[in-house]
Amino acid sequence: MPPFPQRVSLLYSDRDHCIAVHGCTVLSLSLQPPNPSFLKAWAAAMDRLAKQAPSICVLTVIDAGARTPDDASRDAIRATVLRHRQHIGAFAYVIEGRGFGGAAMRSCLSIISLAARYPFPQQVFANVPGAVAWTLTRMPDSSVTAMTAVGVGSLLDEMRRQLTPVVAAAG
User: pTM for the full model?
Assistant: First the structure.
């Protein structure tokens, strides 16, 4: 199978969230829990990429200061993940932030992920480079040729810039 073409596209941005596709990876950045608009855009990104790639990655970056999602949001996330369980090759969460808050959130999410019992590997990380390195070992070579820690880092920087003007204007 030929390598998955390198494509980067910013798909969605609001005050607290941004979604992009990088190669075969759906990348999301959240400063707060998901809202209905974000969840709809995230599900659409997953749907679109699952039709285009034999195996996809999901990389979800969450600020450690974010509140936990409500029950409806958790149900929507689970429904989307279950719909694409056969296409997901790896699912990585990155909980950014140091100290007790970030560590506690990573621990809680790790326990929730274990209990979910999805048929694909999933892991919780403290940083993006660790998540990318782990993901690369879980995906077929042809699916991840476009994904690098530098590429994902650059895309995340762009996603943060999408959120920064809104945050700065509100302050």
Answer: 0.83
